Predict the structure of DNJA2 protein.
Amino acid sequence: RVSLEDLYNGKTTKLQLSKNVLCSACNGQGGKAGAVQKCNACRGRGVRIMIRQLAPGMVQQMQSVCSDCNGEGEVINEKDRCKKCEGKKVIKEVKILEVHVDKGMKHGQRITFSGEADQAPGVEPGDIVLLLQEKENEVFQRDGNDLHMTHKIGLIEALCGFQFTFKHLDGRQIVVKYPPGKVIEPGCIRVVRGEGMPQYRNPFEKGNLYVKFDVQFPENNWISLEKLTELEDLLPARPEFPNVIGDAEEVDLQEFDTTQGSGGGQRREAYNDSSDEESSHDGPGVQCAHQ
Protein backbone atom coordinates (compact mmCIF):
# COMPACT_ATOMS: atom_id res chain seq x y z
CA ARG A 1 0.00 0.00 0.00
CA VAL A 2 1.31 3.42 -0.97
CA SER A 3 0.11 6.88 0.00
CA LEU A 4 -1.01 9.55 -2.45
CA GLU A 5 2.08 11.51 -1.40
CA ASP A 6 4.28 8.60 -2.55
CA LEU A 7 2.55 8.50 -5.93
CA TYR A 8 2.93 12.29 -6.29
CA ASN A 9 6.59 12.55 -5.25
CA GLY A 10 7.88 9.10 -6.18
CA LYS A 11 9.46 6.73 -3.69
CA THR A 12 12.15 4.06 -3.43
CA THR A 13 11.73 1.32 -0.86
CA LYS A 14 13.22 -2.10 -0.15
CA LEU A 15 11.27 -5.36 -0.10
CA GLN A 16 12.65 -8.47 1.62
CA LEU A 17 11.48 -11.90 0.50
CA SER A 18 12.53 -15.54 0.85
CA LYS A 19 12.68 -17.68 -2.28
CA ASN A 20 14.08 -20.95 -3.61
CA VAL A 21 17.35 -20.82 -5.57
CA LEU A 22 19.37 -23.61 -7.16
CA CYS A 23 21.90 -25.13 -4.76
CA SER A 24 25.34 -23.77 -5.59
CA ALA A 25 27.12 -26.83 -4.13
CA CYS A 26 25.55 -29.34 -6.54
CA ASN A 27 24.39 -26.92 -9.26
CA GLY A 28 20.81 -28.01 -8.71
CA GLN A 29 21.58 -31.71 -9.25
CA GLY A 30 20.83 -32.81 -5.70
CA GLY A 31 23.95 -34.91 -5.38
CA LYS A 32 27.05 -36.26 -7.12
CA ALA A 33 27.17 -36.64 -10.88
CA GLY A 34 25.29 -39.78 -11.87
CA ALA A 35 23.73 -40.17 -8.43
CA VAL A 36 20.26 -39.28 -9.66
CA GLN A 37 18.25 -42.35 -10.70
CA LYS A 38 14.78 -42.91 -12.05
CA CYS A 39 12.28 -43.87 -9.38
CA ASN A 40 11.34 -47.52 -9.80
CA ALA A 41 8.09 -47.22 -7.88
CA CYS A 42 6.49 -44.76 -10.33
CA ARG A 43 8.82 -45.38 -13.30
CA GLY A 44 9.89 -41.77 -13.31
CA ARG A 45 6.38 -40.33 -13.68
CA GLY A 46 6.13 -38.94 -10.15
CA VAL A 47 2.64 -40.40 -9.69
CA ARG A 48 1.23 -43.82 -9.02
CA ILE A 49 -1.87 -45.26 -10.62
CA MET A 50 -4.02 -47.41 -8.36
CA ILE A 51 -6.99 -49.47 -9.52
CA ARG A 52 -9.68 -50.52 -7.08
CA GLN A 53 -12.55 -52.85 -7.86
CA LEU A 54 -15.88 -51.42 -6.75
CA ALA A 55 -18.10 -54.22 -8.05
CA PRO A 56 -17.93 -57.04 -10.57
CA GLY A 57 -17.03 -55.45 -13.86
CA MET A 58 -16.63 -51.98 -12.26
CA VAL A 59 -13.25 -50.55 -11.27
CA GLN A 60 -12.02 -47.14 -10.10
CA GLN A 61 -8.69 -45.69 -11.19
CA MET A 62 -6.99 -43.26 -8.81
CA GLN A 63 -3.82 -41.23 -9.18
CA SER A 64 -1.63 -40.15 -6.27
CA VAL A 65 1.78 -38.58 -5.74
CA CYS A 66 4.54 -41.15 -5.47
CA SER A 67 5.66 -41.35 -1.86
CA ASP A 68 9.11 -42.76 -2.73
CA CYS A 69 10.26 -39.76 -4.79
CA ASN A 70 7.75 -37.13 -3.53
CA GLY A 71 6.45 -36.66 -7.05
CA GLU A 72 9.83 -35.83 -8.61
CA GLY A 73 10.25 -39.09 -10.53
CA GLU A 74 13.87 -39.30 -9.36
CA VAL A 75 15.61 -40.66 -6.29
CA ILE A 76 19.08 -40.16 -4.84
CA ASN A 77 20.75 -42.54 -2.47
CA GLU A 78 21.21 -40.97 0.93
CA LYS A 79 25.00 -41.40 0.84
CA ASP A 80 25.21 -39.57 -2.51
CA ARG A 81 22.95 -36.64 -1.58
CA CYS A 82 24.30 -33.08 -1.48
CA LYS A 83 25.06 -32.09 2.10
CA LYS A 84 24.00 -28.49 1.57
CA CYS A 85 20.53 -28.99 0.06
CA GLU A 86 20.03 -32.58 1.32
CA GLY A 87 19.12 -33.70 -2.17
CA LYS A 88 16.34 -31.11 -2.61
CA LYS A 89 18.31 -29.33 -5.38
CA VAL A 90 17.23 -25.91 -4.08
CA ILE A 91 17.88 -23.91 -0.93
CA LYS A 92 16.15 -20.92 0.68
CA GLU A 93 17.69 -17.52 0.09
CA VAL A 94 16.71 -14.06 1.35
CA LYS A 95 16.47 -11.53 -1.46
CA ILE A 96 16.26 -7.75 -1.12
CA LEU A 97 14.41 -6.04 -3.96
CA GLU A 98 14.63 -2.29 -4.53
CA VAL A 99 11.17 -1.05 -5.48
CA HIS A 100 10.93 2.22 -7.42
CA VAL A 101 7.50 3.90 -7.27
CA ASP A 102 7.65 6.48 -10.05
CA LYS A 103 5.83 9.81 -9.99
CA GLY A 104 2.33 9.58 -11.38
CA MET A 105 1.85 5.84 -10.93
CA LYS A 106 -1.75 4.82 -10.30
CA HIS A 107 -3.79 2.50 -8.11
CA GLY A 108 -3.68 -1.03 -9.53
CA GLN A 109 -0.51 -0.46 -11.57
CA ARG A 110 2.00 -3.33 -11.62
CA ILE A 111 5.74 -3.30 -10.95
CA THR A 112 7.42 -6.40 -12.40
CA PHE A 113 10.73 -8.00 -11.40
CA SER A 114 11.56 -10.39 -14.23
CA GLY A 115 13.03 -13.77 -13.30
CA GLU A 116 12.98 -13.12 -9.55
CA ALA A 117 10.49 -15.84 -8.57
CA ASP A 118 11.41 -19.28 -7.18
CA GLN A 119 13.99 -21.30 -9.11
CA ALA A 120 13.74 -25.01 -9.94
CA PRO A 121 15.95 -27.37 -11.98
CA GLY A 122 15.18 -27.22 -15.69
CA VAL A 123 12.53 -24.52 -15.26
CA GLU A 124 12.75 -20.86 -16.26
CA PRO A 125 12.09 -18.78 -13.13
CA GLY A 126 8.93 -16.68 -13.21
CA ASP A 127 8.40 -13.02 -12.37
CA ILE A 128 7.51 -11.24 -9.14
CA VAL A 129 4.66 -8.78 -9.72
CA LEU A 130 3.80 -6.06 -7.18
CA LEU A 131 0.34 -4.49 -7.35
CA LEU A 132 0.09 -0.90 -6.10
CA GLN A 133 -2.78 -0.12 -3.73
CA GLU A 134 -3.43 3.58 -3.06
CA LYS A 135 -4.39 4.66 0.46
CA GLU A 136 -7.17 7.18 0.96
CA ASN A 137 -6.09 10.78 1.52
CA GLU A 138 -7.86 13.06 4.00
CA VAL A 139 -7.74 16.13 1.74
CA PHE A 140 -7.47 15.02 -1.88
CA GLN A 141 -9.33 12.56 -4.08
CA ARG A 142 -7.65 11.42 -7.27
CA ASP A 143 -9.30 11.09 -10.67
CA GLY A 144 -6.71 10.07 -13.25
CA ASN A 145 -4.17 12.91 -13.29
CA ASP A 146 -6.58 15.36 -11.63
CA LEU A 147 -7.07 16.04 -7.93
CA HIS A 148 -10.29 17.06 -6.17
CA MET A 149 -10.75 18.72 -2.79
CA THR A 150 -13.57 20.41 -0.83
CA HIS A 151 -13.10 23.72 1.01
CA LYS A 152 -15.52 25.40 3.42
CA ILE A 153 -16.03 29.17 3.29
CA GLY A 154 -18.39 31.58 5.03
CA LEU A 155 -21.08 33.67 3.40
CA ILE A 156 -18.98 36.83 3.62
CA GLU A 157 -16.15 35.06 1.77
CA ALA A 158 -18.55 33.80 -0.89
CA LEU A 159 -19.75 37.36 -1.52
CA CYS A 160 -16.67 39.48 -0.83
CA GLY A 161 -13.74 37.34 -1.93
CA PHE A 162 -11.32 35.28 0.13
CA GLN A 163 -7.84 33.86 0.53
CA PHE A 164 -6.86 30.49 1.99
CA THR A 165 -3.84 28.20 2.09
CA PHE A 166 -3.39 24.45 1.99
CA LYS A 167 -0.46 22.05 2.08
CA HIS A 168 0.11 20.20 -1.17
CA LEU A 169 1.30 16.61 -1.50
CA ASP A 170 4.92 17.71 -1.95
CA GLY A 171 4.86 19.91 1.17
CA ARG A 172 4.40 23.26 -0.59
CA GLN A 173 2.07 25.84 0.95
CA ILE A 174 -0.36 26.91 -1.76
CA VAL A 175 -2.14 30.28 -1.44
CA VAL A 176 -5.51 30.49 -3.21
CA LYS A 177 -7.00 33.94 -3.84
CA TYR A 178 -10.44 34.87 -5.16
CA PRO A 179 -11.21 38.53 -5.90
CA PRO A 180 -14.02 40.58 -4.33
CA GLY A 181 -17.04 41.04 -6.54
CA LYS A 182 -17.02 37.50 -7.91
CA VAL A 183 -19.59 35.34 -6.14
CA ILE A 184 -19.04 31.72 -5.11
CA GLU A 185 -22.28 29.73 -5.21
CA PRO A 186 -22.81 26.77 -2.83
CA GLY A 187 -21.43 23.61 -4.40
CA CYS A 188 -19.67 25.36 -7.26
CA ILE A 189 -16.28 24.15 -8.52
CA ARG A 190 -13.23 26.21 -9.48
CA VAL A 191 -10.02 24.91 -11.06
CA VAL A 192 -6.34 25.52 -10.33
CA ARG A 193 -4.57 24.43 -13.50
CA GLY A 194 -1.32 22.51 -13.29
CA GLU A 195 -1.64 21.55 -9.61
CA GLY A 196 -2.91 18.00 -10.09
CA MET A 197 -0.93 14.74 -10.23
CA PRO A 198 2.21 14.45 -12.37
CA GLN A 199 1.86 12.33 -15.48
CA TYR A 200 3.52 8.91 -15.37
CA ARG A 201 6.89 9.03 -17.18
CA ASN A 202 6.27 12.72 -17.96
CA PRO A 203 6.29 14.24 -14.46
CA PHE A 204 6.72 17.85 -15.58
CA GLU A 205 3.21 17.73 -17.06
CA LYS A 206 0.50 17.77 -14.40
CA GLY A 207 -3.26 17.53 -14.24
CA ASN A 208 -5.54 20.08 -12.61
CA LEU A 209 -6.78 20.65 -9.08
CA TYR A 210 -10.55 21.09 -8.73
CA VAL A 211 -11.86 22.81 -5.59
CA LYS A 212 -15.51 22.37 -4.59
CA PHE A 213 -16.82 25.05 -2.24
CA ASP A 214 -19.11 24.35 0.70
CA VAL A 215 -20.63 27.72 1.63
CA GLN A 216 -21.52 27.90 5.33
CA PHE A 217 -24.54 30.12 6.03
CA PRO A 218 -25.00 31.91 9.40
CA GLU A 219 -27.32 30.61 12.13
CA ASN A 220 -30.90 31.82 12.56
CA ASN A 221 -31.35 35.31 14.04
CA TRP A 222 -27.65 36.08 13.74
CA ILE A 223 -28.34 39.75 13.02
CA SER A 224 -30.73 42.37 14.40
CA LEU A 225 -33.74 43.48 12.36
CA GLU A 226 -32.22 46.94 12.02
CA LYS A 227 -28.98 45.55 10.59
CA LEU A 228 -30.94 43.13 8.44
CA THR A 229 -32.72 46.06 6.80
CA GLU A 230 -29.37 47.72 6.13
CA LEU A 231 -28.07 44.47 4.65
CA GLU A 232 -31.08 44.19 2.37
CA ASP A 233 -30.37 47.68 1.05
CA LEU A 234 -26.87 46.55 0.08
CA LEU A 235 -27.92 43.34 -1.65
CA PRO A 236 -29.59 43.11 -5.08
CA ALA A 237 -33.30 43.87 -4.91
CA ARG A 238 -35.63 40.97 -4.24
CA PRO A 239 -38.23 40.14 -6.94
CA GLU A 240 -41.60 41.84 -6.69
CA PHE A 241 -44.42 39.91 -5.04
CA PRO A 242 -46.72 38.65 -7.81
CA ASN A 243 -50.31 39.81 -7.96
CA VAL A 244 -52.68 37.18 -6.57
CA ILE A 245 -55.86 36.70 -8.56
CA GLY A 246 -58.77 35.25 -6.63
CA ASP A 247 -58.63 33.60 -3.22
CA ALA A 248 -55.27 32.51 -1.83
CA GLU A 249 -54.25 30.75 1.37
CA GLU A 250 -51.14 31.78 3.26
CA VAL A 251 -49.00 28.99 4.79
CA ASP A 252 -45.81 28.89 6.85
CA LEU A 253 -42.56 27.14 6.01
CA GLN A 254 -41.22 25.04 8.87
CA GLU A 255 -37.94 23.28 9.45
CA PHE A 256 -37.89 19.65 8.35
CA ASP A 257 -35.80 16.84 9.84
CA THR A 258 -34.87 14.48 7.01
CA THR A 259 -34.14 11.65 9.48
CA GLN A 260 -37.81 11.52 10.54
CA GLY A 261 -39.21 11.05 7.07
CA SER A 262 -42.37 12.68 5.75
CA GLY A 263 -45.79 12.10 7.29
CA GLY A 264 -47.35 11.90 3.86
CA GLY A 265 -45.03 9.04 2.96
CA GLN A 266 -46.01 7.15 6.12
CA ARG A 267 -49.71 7.59 5.40
CA ARG A 268 -49.13 6.43 1.86
CA GLU A 269 -47.35 3.32 3.19
CA ALA A 270 -50.25 2.52 5.51
CA TYR A 271 -52.69 2.92 2.62
CA ASN A 272 -50.63 0.61 0.43
CA ASP A 273 -50.41 -1.99 3.21
CA SER A 274 -54.18 -2.04 3.69
CA SER A 275 -54.70 -2.24 -0.06
CA ASP A 276 -52.32 -5.20 -0.26
CA GLU A 277 -54.21 -7.00 2.54
CA GLU A 278 -57.56 -6.46 0.83
CA SER A 279 -56.27 -7.60 -2.54
CA SER A 280 -54.72 -10.73 -1.00
CA HIS A 281 -58.02 -11.74 0.67
CA ASP A 282 -60.59 -10.59 -1.87
CA GLY A 283 -58.82 -11.49 -5.08
CA PRO A 284 -57.60 -9.14 -7.85
CA GLY A 285 -58.51 -5.49 -7.38
CA VAL A 286 -59.50 -2.90 -9.92
CA GLN A 287 -56.56 -1.75 -12.05
CA CYS A 288 -56.09 1.48 -13.96
CA ALA A 289 -56.52 1.16 -17.68
CA HIS A 290 -53.38 1.72 -19.74
CA GLN A 291 -53.56 4.19 -22.56
Summary: The radius of gyration is 38 Å.
